Every structure is written in structure tokens, then in C-alpha cells.
From TrEMBL:
Function (record text): One of the early assembly proteins it binds 23S rRNA. One of the proteins that surrounds the polypeptide exit tunnel on the outside of the ribosome. Forms the main docking site for trigger factor binding to the ribosome.
Any single Gene Ontology cellular-component annotation: ribosome
Entry annotated with the keyword 4Fe-4S: no
Keywords: Ribonucleoprotein, Ribosomal protein, RNA-binding, rRNA-binding
InterPro entries: Nucleotide-bd_a/b_plait_sf, Ribosomal_uL23-like, Ribosomal_uL23/eL15/eS24_sf
Any one GO MF annotation of this record: structural constituent of ribosome
SUPFAM superfamilies per UniProt: Ribosomal proteins S24e, L23 and L15e
Organism superkingdom: Bacteria
Family of this protein: Belongs to the universal ribosomal protein uL23 family.
Source lineage: Bacteria, Pseudomonadati, Pseudomonadota, Betaproteobacteria, Burkholderiales
The protein's assembly and partners: Part of the 50S ribosomal subunit. Contacts protein L29, and trigger factor when it is bound to the ribosome.
Keyword Ribonucleoprotein: yes
Name the record gives this protein: Large ribosomal subunit protein uL23
């Protein structure tokens, strides 16, 4: 996989109560990341290993549909997201402040 494509796969970390709970609990640390809509599991794994210099154990991907919202008589829809839950190998830790 090309480095240019891998740099476009990861969009942002997900910072929610659920993501924080998953990151702190359990034997294996898990990180929640917002990824590109067309990203595959091998691309996400390679991108995390390249950017953060950690070893990835597994990747789970979730497609979250956008919510329907109303403002008076107008109906709109929020943007759909693709979330990747990345499990790191034992002893690995991910630090967002030290990205190369």
C-alpha cells in the first residue's frame, strides 16, 4: 500500500464516553478512530502501524448512519461515519501527541 493512501485513511480520533471507556478498560487497549468511508481493515491496520509505530492485533469496523434531524418544517441528515476500533498487542500504547 502506498504511503499517500495510508495518510488519508485515518481522519480523527473518536472522543466519546464509550471510546474512553473502551480505551481504559480490558486487558487489551482499544482505540476508536474515524476513518475514510472506503477504508478497509488492512489499510487501517497498516496506517496505524505506520503513523504511531505500534503493533496492531485486530481491527473492527463500524458504519454509523447519520441521524435525521428536524428544524421546524425542514428535515436534514447528519453525515454518516465509519469508525474503526483498533486493538493493540499486549504492552503496546498509543500516544496521539507523538505522531511522526
Amino acid at each position: 500500500m502506498k504511503a499517500e493512501r495510508l495518510l488519508q485513511v485515518i481522519l480523527a480520533p473518536v472522543i466519546t464516553e464509550k471510546a474512553t471507556f473502551i480505551a481504559e478498560s480490558g486487558a487489551k487497549p482499544q482505540i476508536a478512530l474515524r476513518v475514510a468511508p472506503d477504508a478497509t481493515k488492512p489499510e487501517v491496520k497498516a496506517a496505524v502501524e505506520m503513523l504511531f509505530k505500534v503493533e496492531v492485533d485486530s481491527v473492527s469496523v463500524l458504519n454509523r448512519k447519520g441521524k435525521v434531524k428536524r428544524s421546524g418544517r425542514f428535515v436534514g441528515r447528519r453525515k454518516a461515519n465509519r469508525i474503526a476500533y483498533v486493538s493493540l498487542k499486549q504492552g503496546q500504547e498509543l500516544d496521539f501527541t507523538e505522531v511522526n
